[in-house]
Amino acid sequence: MITYKDCKRLGIPTIYLTRLESEGIIYRIEKGIYLTPYGDYDEYYFFQYRFPKAIFSYISALHLQGFTDEIPQYFEVSIPRGYRFNNPPSNLRHHIVSKKFIDMGIINVKTPWQNEVKVYDFERTVCDFIINRKKIDPELFVKTLQTYGNFPKKNISKLYEYAERMDIVEETKRTLEVLL
């Protein structure tokens, strides 16, 4: 895989992309993204390449980090208030987040094709689930919290730091009392 941005960063004239495409050596997958015939189609990476301000969240974040065996049927992302998608894919569910919280809890994880994408960490995902409890499938909500309760690397202090910043400390305490 090679991108327009890769060429610019490496000082390679982008006309080579056009020439390689016309010779059938690479194929244009999306605007600025090219693959060889043997390249892997990494839809998560391509999506974030097109929409760099979108952070994988909720079920997409759980899936990419291996915290659920559910395979998402759509991209679930969080975007800052005021951000607009140009020609978004049909399999998109987005959540609008205040600009003061959008960067909280971002980590990089590798997709199944070993490309890095931005996702929210487990603690941030739990906070998002608590805030939007009524919009989350009840079975998924309970499974996620049980998985977090059994997660050996959980960081309760980070969870409460996020909850405090998001003004949901009491809801978080009530929700986690049952689990921990």
Shape assignment: elongated
| C-alpha Rg (nearest Å) | 19 Å
Q: Report the sheet with the most strands, covering strand number, pairing sense and barrel closure.
A: 3 strands, antiparallel
Helix content: 40-55%
Topology pattern, helix = H, strand = E: EHHEEHEHEEEEHHHH
Assess the beta-strand content as a share of residues.
Answer: 15-25%
Overall mean pLDDT stands at: 93
Number of strands: 8
Give me the side-by-side strand order of the main sheet.
1-3-2
Number of helices: 8
- Poorly predicted residue ranges: none
- Distance from N terminus to C terminus (CA atoms, Å) equals 45 Å
Main attributes of the structure:
180 residues; alpha+beta; 3-stranded antiparallel beta sheet; 3-stranded mixed beta sheet; 8 helices; 41% helix; elongated
